[in-house]
Write a structure and sequence with these properties.
The protein is 34% helix and 18% strand. By secondary structure, the chain is of the alpha/beta class.
């Protein structure tokens, strides 16, 4: 085998053999700093709520959150005092005018700055950040909406207009953002951090690729061979993941395809506490501060509602058809580094590329 290829394969193996497994508490302590920005790489389903609880227990403050669509997590983080800035497209609100949830209270009391966006514009921010673009065009009709006219704390760091170099018209663009970190929950991952997610994806692709680092929780930790057998499911690449947390039921009471449905009764109890700061504190004291991790959370749940309540929402199997990723796997280079397809060896190819000005140093 060509020596350079051998070194490359060795580097890849070393990278894939990294073990990033740790507890959620350790991950937050090591990789989250006060004042940073973050994004959830799940939306509405499969929410990383165990990691949210770890973040709240850590006492981290002054964080900025980008959230495509929230159910529990935004109000929890506001109640804990974890976030003071929020860029959001949607946050679930129930109870009508009779209920004043934590988001409403924080706005009225001036404890939270909010930038209201649409699902498309917020996703475009993450997509631009993931692709390394400074900005990205968005729909022209946005220009006449209050989303653009009544800008929040991001101000001119959100929307701008540029000239279309082809037609000369003004084009509305959003700034590309790369948050400091993402929180994400997936069905399975390997120890190096290759995370696989299936079901409702929504924002997950771009929200996972935009940030500098991902704290990843997973229902199952599997061998890398399992990951490689279904490459199309890998959405969190290992080079982006700084921590892997093995966390069964890590999205509860949210749902996760292939594992469990959402827990309607438990969610109802949570929503019933939102209208009162005292009731909200009581809920958080019991389910977040009153336990040390997700294992303790599940033990408390079983003690209060019975294990049968969790069994009742477990997913029934619905298998997909496997995909065949087979190739001939015929080598391009022989043992002496020669390729009959190129008609030269690797050294000659490198020299050819250098002469043409297309060889770049790594």
């Amino acid at each position: 085998m060509y020596e350079g290829g051998s070194r490359s394969e060795g580097a890849v193996k070393k990278f894939m053999d990294q073990d990033k497994r740790m507890s959620g508490a350790e991950a937050v302590a090591r990789f989250v700093n006060d004042g940073e920005s973050f994004v959830f790489a799940n939306c509405l389903t499969g929410m990383p709520l165990a990691l949210v609880h770890d973040l709240i227990r850590s006492g981290k403050k002054n964080l900025m959150l980008f959230q495509q669509g929230g159910i529990e997590e935004v109000d929890l983080l506001i109640s804990a005092g974890s976030i003071d800035r929020l860029a959001v497209a949607y946050n679930f609100r129930m109870g009508g005018k009779r209920v004043t949830p934590p988001l409403d209270r924080a706005l009225k009391e001036g404890r939270l700055q909010v930038e209201e966006l649409t699902n498309f514009t917020l996703l475009a921010m993450m997509k631009a950040g993931a692709m390394g673009y400074p900005f990205m065009p968005v729909l022209r009709g946005m220009q006449v909406t209050d989303v653009v006219k009544k800008q929040g704390f991001l101000g001119r760091e959100c929307f701008q207009e540029v000239k279309d170099p082809f037609g000369g018209e003004d084009v509305l663009v959003v700034k590309g953002y790369s948050p400091d970190f993402a929180l994400m929950h997936v069905q399975r991952a390997d120890k190096a951090g290759n995370g696989q997610l299936w079901g409702a994806m929504i924002n997950s692709k771009w929200a996972a690729l935009a940030p500098e680092r991902i704290i990843l929780s997973a229902e199952e930790i599997v061998d890398t061979d399992v990951i490689l057998s279904a490459p199309h499911l890998t959405i969190a690449p290992a080079h982006k993941v700084c921590a892997v947390v093995h966390c069964p039921w890590g999205a509860h009471p949210s749902e996760l395809a292939g594992f469990y449905d959402y827990d309607m009764v438990f969610r109802a109890l949570y929503f019933a506490s939102l209208n009162s700061p005292e009731a909200m504190k009581g809920w958080m004291d019991e389910w977040i501060h009153g336990v040390t991790d997700r294992k303790g959370y599940l033990e408390r749940y079983a003690g209060k509602f019975g294990k049968e309540a969790l069994e009742a929402i477990k997913a029934k199997p619905f298998k997909s058809v496997p995909a065949d990723y087979g190739y001939s796997f015929a080598p391009n280079w022989d043992e002496k580094g020669y390729s009959d397809k190129f008609g030269m060896n690797l050294d000659e190819l490198a020299q050819f590329m250098e002469e043409k000005g297309i060889l770049r140093e790594g």
